[in-house]
Amino acid sequence: MTASNPYAVEPAALHATITEALGPLARRVDFKLGEVTVTVAPENYLKAAAVLRDDARCRFEQLIDVCGLDYSDYGNGAWDGPRYAVVTHLLSVSLNQRVRLRVFAADDELPEVESLVPLWSAANWFEREAFDLYGIVFLNHPDLRRILTDYGFIGHPFRKDFPVSGHVEMRYDPERQRVIYQPVTIEPREITPRIIREDHYGGIQPGRGLQNNG
Q1: Cβ 136 vs Cβ 116: under 8 Å
Q2: How many domains does the chain have?
Q3: How many helices (H) and strands (E) does the chain have?
Q4: pLDDT (tens digit per residue) in 111-145
Q5: Reduced to 3 DSSP states, what percent helix, strand and coil does the chain have, rounded to the nearest 5?
Q6: Beta bridge partners of 67
Q7: Among 17, 48, 66, 155, fewest CB within 10 Å belongs to which?
Q8: Are 73 and 160 in contact (CB under 8 A)?
Q9: In-domain check, residue 212
């Protein structure tokens, strides 16, 4: 602790501080690679976020990022848990410390979590992006609508099962003199990179570097 910040803690001690501050609101608090990650249940998401902002030992007054995650292919399909999560990164300017807050949506078919806009107005556009790209619904968001894709866009492009070519394509129709939408005309295919290995390619011998031909 320091005289200027009586509640400041070293990064390694932040784990214990946050664990104590959140108590039963946290499902788990992990400390790895010098970073603290808090995982909470959906019903405790807003309450835990408020504690992290307001508790004198935490004072995470600034929200710096909110992003969605799709765990459906995590660990090459080995993941056994809820599919969608929202991860929020918080910063305490006054105490010079950071924390990662994670919540999993309870329903994979209709992923919903509370909006953090009532606590940090900066969450507004971040949550709109996660809604647009992952289809995660943020309850009580003041203006939840797409922010990156077009109004007529179908689906959510960051979901693991979203086709690479998409569902529709745009083109200019000279007869109608406007841009129109139509079904995708590109046939989906799996592209596997072709690797060619040749002995002595470019003057390189196995186990040796470039040869001096001069």
Answers
A1: no
A2: 2
A3: 3, 9
A4: 999 999 999 999 999 999 999 999 999 999 999 99
A5: 20, 25, 55
A6: 87
A7: 155
A8: yes
A9: no
